[in-house]
Amino acid sequence: MGATDPAGPVMDRDEVDRALARLGAEHEAIESSLLALQDHAGRRLLEGAGLTGTTKERWAATEASITLLWAYFEAYADTLRRAREIRSRRRWSGREDLVELTGLLRGESVTVAGGAAAAANVPALLPEAGRLSRRFTLSALVERMNELYAASLDMVVTADAVWSALPARIDLLAAELQRTRKLAHSVGVRPGEHPSGDDLERITRTLTALREEVVSDPLAYWVPAQGSSAPGGGRPDTTVYDREARALEDVRREIDAVLTVRQDAEQRLVRLRDVLSRADRTLAEARTARGEVLAKIAATEVPVVSGPPTVLHEQLATAAEYRRQARWHRLSPLLESLEQKAEDELLRARESLTAVTAPLAVRAELRGRLDAYKAKVARHGLAEDPFLIERYDAARRMLWSAPCDLRVAEQAVLRYQQAAAELLGAPRVPEQGGPQDRRGE
Q1: Are strands 8-9 and 4-5 parallel, antiparallel or unpaired?
Q2: What's the predicted TM-score (pTM) here?
Q3: Does residue 33 contact residue 147 with C-beta atoms inside 8 Å?
Q4: What is the distance between the alpha carbons of residues 345 and 279, in angstroms, rounded to a whole number?
Q5: Which residues is 5 bridged to in the sheet?
Q6: Contact status, residue 102 vs residue 109, Cβ threshold 8 Å
Q7: Residues 312 and 318 sit within 8 Å (Cβ to Cβ)
Q8: Contact criterion met (CB below 8 Å) for 138 and 171
Q9: Is 163 exposed, middle or buried (0-12, 13-18, 19+ CB in 10 A)?
Q10: Which residues, in sequence order, are CB contacts of 403 under 8 Å at separation 6+?
């Protein structure tokens, strides 16, 4: 094998036979792959679809690549067939045959005319574009076919993956959307009348547009896997779908809240009436107590008591009207607001009553303290002491007369305590700052 030619050293018979076996296996594998690609469901869908955008552009290039693949495969098959014919001429191929076989199997023996690329409408970005012809070795041709096949399969698999995943999910969500719309309509949640009704309309428009875009341009909804070169590496982009699914779930929760209102509206209205009634009674009691304080307690600032919460009563009447009219979508937020406001109003009424009756509480505390010291003095046998009786009577007159000056009365009680403490031998009762600074016995 000392002689050489442009294809390299002349192959011997064993090398030729091994090369033919390998190339035959590659031929079968390539043919099987091309037939599988031809029958792929995604390719058939692409052929019949009204494509737009990125998918339309890539499918045009992919169709050209598939056509070119078959042209390359035919050229490959023709060259392999010629080589097999030469090898089959003689059982022991001579040098002339081996030289020819070496040229076919190792040299640039495959010529693909530029017409094949032109017939396939090969895009300008492919190397085949614009060439009159191109020569390949069989190995280089296999490598080029593998490249074209991988790119074509990636496009077909990607489109098929998006079509298999998103439209079905969109249809399921659209069906759920229709059920939610019917339920919403039954409880008065309608576009223009309730925010959730507007949301349902927006979700409907978005899902309709999304499905149209996914069907016509599936590649626009594909996220390639980082660092992956395998055909179809990646996942469908479900960002828009997921956002609308969450929005629909929010609407469903709002509808559930409205349904809950429909079920227990009467009970909640009864509770609201009760809370507001208690607030009214408490305010009435505070107003009465204020009059009593002004009549019985002198030199005291008494807070003004507000009137009944008429606005809340009006809103409660509106809520009852909503219930009668079955306007649940309006009743739901109104009840939630009223329940909080009613509780706040009852708390305010109670605080008002406490503030108004504070002087009466101070007087009651002074009376209790005076009687407690009187009982203590009696236990020690000093109940008849004239000085203590005088101090006690003075304090009692002040506390049981109207109007009562709390500061003067407290000083009288304090004097009685001090006198009792001196007679009992107890430590002197300290001076106190006023009605708010008292210590009981």
Answers
A1: antiparallel
A2: 0.57
A3: no
A4: 6
A5: 8
A6: no
A7: no
A8: no
A9: buried
A10: 295, 296, 297, 298
Of the candidate ranges 73-87, 171-185, 288-302, 353-367, the one whose mean pLDDT is the lowest:
288-302
206-223 mean pLDDT = 93
Average pLDDT over residues 116-127: 52
Q: Could you identify the residue written with the tokens 């428009």?
A: 205
Mean local confidence (pLDDT), 307-326: 86
Q: Which residues on neighbouring strands pair with residue 302, listed in sequence order?
A: none
> What digits encode the pLDDT tens for the residues 344-366?
999 999 988 888 888 888 888 88
Q: What are phi and psi of 325, to 5 degrees?
A: -90, 0
* Residues facing residue 135 across a β-bridge: 111
Determine the residue type at 313: H
Give the H or E element holding residue 131: none
C-alpha 412/C-alpha 407 separation (Å) is 9
Which helix (DSSP H) or strand (DSSP E) does residue 437 occupy? none
Q: Can you tell me which residue has the tokens 């009696």?
A: 378
Q: Considering just the CA atoms, what is the radius of gyration of the chain in Å? A: 50
pLDDT digits (tens, 9 = 90+) for 39-93: 888 888 888 888 999 999 999 989 888 988 998 989 888 888 888 888 778 777 6
Report how far residue 313's alpha carbon sits from residue 277's, in angstroms, rounded to the nearest whole number: 10
Q: What is the pLDDT of residue 123?
A: 56
Q: State the Cα–Cα distance between residues 339 and 318, nearest whole angstrom.
A: 14
Question: CA 212, CA 200: separation in Å to the nearest integer?
Answer: 19
| Residue 166 CB coordination number (10 Å) | 23
Location of structure tokens 């009692």: 396
Q: Quick one: CA dihedral 8, 12, 13, 19, positive or negative? A: negative
Cα distance between residue 210 and residue 192, in whole Å: 24
Smallest CA-to-CA distance from 374 within 410, 419, 332 is with: 419
- The two tokens of residue 34 are 């091309």
Other beta carbons less than 10 A from residue 252's beta carbon: 17
d(CA 270, CA 263): 14
Tokens of 149: 């096949």
